[in-house]
């Protein structure tokens, strides 16, 4: 059984690459110091372009992406995204009325994108909206109609079903894939690089969980597990989400919640598996644990990485919750031949 598990893991980490291209729009209301509108474009998890209402300009975030677009791309898409910004601002006002809300903090998000398996040629995608961290409406490409999980979205579904749904389906199933393949071609060296993780054992104090922290790896697929005396440990283990670093790499953590006495009686090992090389086995010893109390500043560095990625994380966090809530994902795509993404449509009152 152990050999079978290792074999399956090996397939998971070495199979053909599934490339992705997505856009995330986030409109906010009532959050001091945070932009009212943010747009982030991603290719294989790398941030490739960025816009917010303070900057008022879409800018490239990777050097290679400049070669994949024409000279007027940034100006054209800046104008497009300014229009989307206005739609999102109006949308929050409309949704507050529908949900019978007045003040407070509110978020309205759209996430859409496509995926392409460079080995099988299979494609997939999605287009969905969220309000205040919950599903609001999404497009089901199989039925070419919108799915409204809450009553407040029914009026939007009625207005968007039909011609708009057909337009979005055509747009999302063809042009996004074309753009994705183009981006992969231009960013091949960067997107297909393999950077191994740096693994550390961290602990805030002697009574807190021990964290196995892997950072600096690329691509984002990584498996972190804990073993007790050579056997996989599932209880007392909490594996976190994969998060982006500011430099385009990723980080992930797995907490071990066992008492100090238990750790002394048994051998605990953190195993990190990444396609960049052989699995990393980090045996837990008191000498290897880095803590704030020991005067080590690694935890501060890790916190700095998270803070540096806060804007991106803030943009995706609500949609991550939404995608895990159980609603079916629709097949979609995103980038147009003349612009970076589909034009936003208003909700209407």
TrEMBL record:
Region listing for Disordered, in residue ranges: 329-349
A GO BP entry: immune response
One term under GO cellular component: extracellular space
Annotated signal sequence range: 1-16
PROSITE patterns (UniProt xref): IG_LIKE
Compositional bias ranges of the Low complexity kind: 330-349
Pfam families, A to Z: C1-set (PF07654), MHC_I (PF00129)
Domain of life: Eukaryota
Limits of the Ig-like domain: 197-285
SMART domains: IGc1 (SM00407)
Protein name: Ig-like domain-containing protein
Record keywords: Glycoprotein, Membrane, Signal, Transmembrane, Transmembrane helix
UniProt record similarity statement: Belongs to the MHC class I family.
Annotated transmembrane regions: 298-321
CDD domains associated with the record: IgC1_MHC_I_alpha3
